[in-house]
Amino acid sequence: MKADTKICNRCDQLLSYSSFYNQCNTKDKKSNYCKDCHKDYYRKRTERLKRDDPAKYLLVKSCYAAFERGKPTYNRDGYENIGCSFDNARSFLEALWNDEIFRNEWIAQTDIYVANNNIYKYRPTLDRINPELGYEEGNIRMLPQHINVSRGKVA
């Protein structure tokens, strides 16, 4: 085996290092799965989460998107200087998912969304109660997409 090759732990193919993502916590600084297997793994994982726990899947996507909107570098109309008090998207997700009232409202709205064949207007979304404040505990609630959007429209 050449020094610049590695065997993928999933497909057992001998591939060049360029076929692996970088990963700082491994001896050779490369992932144990090749890029194709890595993509396939996460695609299947996403499909499984979407199928088995659609509420959590939607909340993960919403938290990651909201965390990005809360960054100082985000520049889209309506999201200037929003901010986010969470250190990362994962802590954002955990805080909301561990809030029983929020979680139950999110799951109930997801059930409505799924029952209506994923019509986007019924999708649960994250709403900032006070639009002047950022994504922070006490200022976030669940609203169906069509209600959240209508709140942002200026008369």
Description:
The chain has 155 residues and is α+β, with helices and mostly antiparallel strands. The chain contains 5 helices and 6 strands, in the order ββββααααββα. The chain has 2 domains: 5-42, no CATH class; 53-152, no CATH class. The strands form 3 sheets. A two-stranded antiparallel sheet has the order 1-2. The protein has a two-stranded antiparallel ribbon with strand order 3-4. A two-stranded antiparallel ribbon has the order 5-6. A hairpin with a 6-residue loop joins strand 1 (5-7) and strand 2. It starts with a strand and ends with a helix.
Helices and strands in order:
Layout: E1 5-7, E2 14-16, E3 20-22, E4 30-34, H1 35-52, H2 54-69, H3 89-97, H4 100-115, E5 124-128, E6 140-144, H5 145-152
Antiparallel strand pairs: 1-2, 3-4, 5-6
Helix pairs in contact: 1-2, 2-3, 2-4
Oligomer: single chain
Biggest sheet, in brief?
2 strands, antiparallel
Q: State the distance separating the first and last CA atoms.
A: 68 Å
User: Using DSSP, what is the number of strands?
Assistant: 6
The secondary-structure element order is EEEEHHHHEEH
Shape field: elongated
Helix content: 40-55%
Pick out the low-confidence regions.
Answer: none
Content-based structural category? alpha+beta
| Widest sheet, order of strands | 1-2
β-sheet strand percentage: 15-25%
Domain count, please report it. Answer: 2
Radius of gyration, whole Å: 20 Å
Q: What's the overall average pLDDT, rounded? A: 92
Number of continuous helical runs: 5
